[in-house]
Amino acid sequence: MKAVPHLWLHAFWPLLALLSRQSECAAKNGNGGNVVEHHQPSYWEQPPFSQPYFDNTTRRETTTTVGQSAYLHCRVRNLGDRAVSWIRKRDLHILTVGILTYTNDQRFQSLHSDGSDEWTLKISSPQIRDSGVYECQVSTEPKISQAYHLSVVVSKAMITGNPELYIKSGSDINLTCTVLKTPEPPSFIYWYRGEHVINYSQRGGISVVTEKQTRTSKLLISRALPADSGNYTCAPSTAESASVMVHVLNGEHPAAMQHGNSSNSGAATRTLALLLLLLHAGSFAR
Ligand SMILES: *[C@@H]1O[C@H](CO)[C@@H](O)[C@H](O)[C@H]1NC(C)=O
Ligand SMILES: *[C@@H]1O[C@H](CO)[C@@H](O)[C@H](O)[C@H]1NC(C)=O
Ligand SMILES: *[C@@H]1O[C@H](CO)[C@@H](O)[C@H](O)[C@H]1NC(C)=O
Ligand SMILES: *[C@@H]1O[C@H](CO)[C@@H](O)[C@H](O)[C@H]1NC(C)=O
Ligand SMILES: *[C@@H]1O[C@H](CO)[C@@H](O)[C@H](O)[C@H]1NC(C)=O
């Protein structure tokens, strides 16, 4: 009598085991993967290709200039019903979950279009302090994540030569401006004299050649006159501007007529400037 249930259990044990396993799977799927696993996943339960994984082809190092929106692209395959979050590593702040922004800082935004694998973190008006590591995280159990490095740099313009330029009337003003430390070429570079954008049509003999590739802009004003003197500023769209004072002088003074670079000591330069100023004033008095 006692042996009968024992035999019965033996006969049905494989079937019971299979049923219990299947119900465990069902519970796990129903809960969106939050059930803690009690056993090692076997190959037929969790084939590797059904799990979310990162598409590793997106760039993980990004450099931008202050104020230029930055985009970090995270691509996740087989996401299923999991969520993609962006975390700031510095303070483990959750920035976005899915397409929602979780921080008060509205400069952080998650960009995603339906059906796409891409979850992009957009950082508007980035500042230097936004530099650092950001993590794209997928809510699998355990979590998987991928780190992205963002550098926010200050881009500056530089005009080759001295910040004070003395030029003989009738010779050319030739200024070269280079944009330094810029990951992207600026979309435009403006030249100003004083407060005003240089007007090409107002006076002949002005040429501006801007090369995106070398991030330079050359301003050439031929046969300059004293009226062309002033504070010349090179203002790229995405960089701090640079200025140079140009003095166009009447009269002759060979030593003073050298363009741009002078390795004189400060005192000698000041004496020279004073001398030129007197010369200049003298030419008006005459
Ligand atoms: C992507 O990179 C992560 C970490 O570097 C690695 O663990 C994972 O296997 C890679 N995935 C693919 C599909 O190459
Ligand atoms: C302007 O100066 C640059 C070097 O600073 C020189 O290469 C170029 O030939 C000059 N252009 C003219 C028209 O003088
Ligand atoms: C440039 O100068 C011309 C001629 O004086 C004038 O008609 C034009 O409005 C000026 N353009 C700008 C942008 O100042
Ligand atoms: C030249 O103009 C720039 C921009 O307006 C200004 O920052 C700079 O102080 C000026 N330089 C001089 C010597 O006036
Ligand atoms: C300016 O002069 C210094 C010292 O003589 C030299 O090292 C530098 O290359 C010069 N710069 C230009 C633009 O000529």
From TrEMBL:
UniProt protein name: Limbic system-associated membrane protein isoform X1
Chaperone is among the record's keywords: no
SUPFAM superfamilies according to UniProt: Immunoglobulin (SSF48726)
Superkingdom field: Eukaryota
A Pfam family recorded for this sequence: V-set
Keyword entries, A-Z: Signal
Residues annotated as domain Ig-like: 52-139, 142-245
Signal peptide start-end: 1-27
CDD domains associated with the record: Ig
InterPro entries cross-referenced by the UniProt entry: Ig-like_dom, Ig-like_dom_sf, Ig-like_fold, Ig_sub, Ig_sub2, Ig_V-set, Zig-8
PANTHER family: DEFECTIVE PROBOSCIS EXTENSION RESPONSE 4-RELATED, DEFECTIVE PROBOSCIS EXTENSION RESPONSE DPR -RELATED
Stored PROSITE patterns: IG_LIKE
